Amino acid sequence: MSAPRPAPTDRGAWLLVARRDFRVRLRDKGFAISTAITLTVLSIFIFVRAYAGGGTPSYELGVVGTAAAGMPVAAVAEQQGIQVSVRSFPDDAAGRHALSDGAIDALLEGDGLIGQRDVPQQLRDVLQTSAAAGRIGSALADAGASSAEIARLLDPHPLQVQTVEPADAHRDANAGVAFIGVFLLYGQLFGYGVWVATGVIEEKASRVVEVLLSAISPRQLLTGKVVGIGSLGVVQLAFIATFAIVLAKITGALSIPASAVGVAVLVLAWFVLGFAFYAGLFAVSGALVSRMEELQNATVPINIVILVSFFISVGAVQRPDAPIVVLASLLPFSAALAMPVRIVVGAASAPQIVASVLILVGSTALLIPLAGRIYAGAVLRTGARVKLRDAWRAAR
Amino acid sequence: MLELIDLSRRFGDVVALDGVSFVVPAGSIVGFVGPNGAGKTTAMRIALGVLAPDAGEVRWNGAPVDAAARRRFGYMPEERGLYPRMKVRDQLIYLARLHGVARTEAAGRADEIAQTLGVESRTGDRVEALSLGNQQRVQLAAALVHEPDVLVLDEPFSGLDPVGVDALAGVLRRQSDNHGVPVVFSSHQLDLVERICDAVVLIDHGRIVASGTIDELRAARARRLVRVEVAGADEEWFASLPGARLDALVPGGVILELDASLDEQRVLDLARGSGDVTHFSRVRPSLAELFREVVQA
At what angle do helices A323-330 and A300-318 cross, to 10 degrees? Predict the structure, then answer.
C-alpha cells in the first residue's frame, strides 16, 4: 500500500464545478452575443426615449417685416405647450431663401402661410388660433374693451387639474424602468435556465457525467452547475444594468428616477430568487433527455409557464392591481416576474412582498431536493427519454 | 482489497446481477470476463457507486465504501466520456481536483500521467481534436490522474494499438506492484487478460461462473488433453485404451481427451508401441477455450 492519504470528502466539490461552468460560459460565443444584443436593444430604447419622444416640439417661423407681427403667434404657441421662435426677414425673397435652406419651417406672408413642401399641422393650428385670437381681440377693442381686459379674456388661467389618486411625478419613468426590468428578467431567467438544461445534456450526451459522478455526488454536480451558471447571469445582469443607468444619465433624456440603482438591485435580487426556482426544473428537463434536439420538447411546459408569466407581468406595468396580476405576483411560477413590476410601479404592499418572497423561497426549498433526486435518477440513463416516475424510482 | 459481496440488480424484468461476489486483492490485477450482456458493466458501475445495487454491498479494506473512499477510486466507464471542447490538460486538472487532489499538485499530476501514456504533446488540444486512440489514452489518464487507491476499468484496452496496450499494461502493473493498488478490468481480449492478469473472474447471465488464477481455472474446469503424433501407426491406435477419447484430428496426429483416472504415461507407452512418436504434449487450453467451455456449459 502507498502511504495512507487523507480521505477527501466531496464537500466543496460544487465550488469546482461552479467555477468551471462559470468560466466555460463566460468564454462562450453565445454569452458575448447575448450581451451584445441586450446592450444594443437597450441603447436603442434609451436613445429613442432621449431624442425622439418627449421634449417640447419647436418650430421656426419666418415673418416678413418686423418680428412683432409674429409675437402673438409665439404667445399662443406657448399656451399650447409648443415652442415657436419667430425670425424676421426684410422681404419675401429673403424669407423664401431661408425656407428653402430649411432654416425655418414656415414663412408668414401677410395672411398667407408658405411652407417648403408642407406645413406641420401643429404650427398651422397655432397660427389659426392666433389669427382667431387677433380678430376676437380687434372686435373686443372695437366694442370698447380695454387691452388688459382683452388679454385676460384671451389668456385665461389654466384649469386646475386634480387626480383622485395621489399623483406620482415619476410614474411614467417608473413604468419605463419596470418595462425594461421585466424584459431583462424574462430574458435572463429563460436564457440561463436553458443554459442549465443544455449544460446537463452536454454532460449526458458526451457521457462525461459518469466520470464526474464516480468522483462527486449528483447533488454536488447539480449545485455547482446551477450556482456557476446563475452567478454568470447575475454578473451579466449587473453589467447590463450599470451600462443602462450610465447611458441614461449621459444622454440625460430618460429621466431615470433617483432610485434607478435601487431598481437594478431589485431586479438582480428577483433574478436570483426566480433562477433558483426555475434552475432545478430546467436541470430535470435536461436530465430526462439525451440529445440537444430533444431539449425543445422537454422544456415546453416550463417555457409556457415562463412566457405566460411574462405576458401577465408586461400587463402589470399598466394595471398593477388587476386580480390576475396580484395572483401572479404571489405564485412561485410567476412571482419573480410580476412582483418586481408591481414593486417598481409602487403597487405592491409590504405584506404582499413578504408573502411573495416567502412563497417563492419556500417552494424552491421544496423543489430542489425533488429536482435533485430526479436528476440523479435520470442523468446516467441514455437512449430513450426517461419517464419522470422511472427517474424518481431509480434514485435511491 | 476490494470486495463485491452478493450484489444483485434488476432492470425491470431483466436480472443484470444475481448474487455476484468476488474479491480484488491488494496488489493484484483481476480480469473480469464474460459475454456481452453478462453484467460486467453493471457490476463495475455498482462498485463505483454510480449505480445502486438492489442487494449486496461493496467493501474497501473491510469497510463499506462511502463517498470519500469512492473519490479515491479510479474509473474508466464503458461509455467513454470527456468534455469534447475542453483542453486535455485543463480536463485532467479539473478531474484531479474533483477527486480531491490539491490545486498545487493537480497540474503536475496531469503532466505526469500525460507523459506516461504518451499524450504529452497533445495536452494543449481540445479532446475532440484527438484521434480515437489518443482520446482513449486521455480517458485512461483521467482515471489515473489522482493516483487512485483502486482501479476499475471497463474495457480499457479496446481501441488501443499494440504500443498503447503495452503502455497501459505497464501502468497497471506498476500501480499494482509498486502501490499495491487492486486493479480490476473487463476485456474481451482474452489473450491479453491471460498475459496481464493474476486472476480471472468469469461472469455469465449475472452470475460468477468461475474465478481464480488461470492455472486454477484450468485445473478445475479444463479437460485433460494430450496431443500425440505417431508415425506409421494405425489410425485407431488408441482405440484399445480405456478412458481415452478422440477430441480432434490435427495434422499428423490426434488430440485425445483423457479421463481423470488415466495416466498420461500409459498413453505414451501405447503410442510408442504403435509406431514412432514424433510429438507428445499436454494441450493447455487458452483462456479463450476455457471461456467458451464455461459459457457454453
Answer: 130
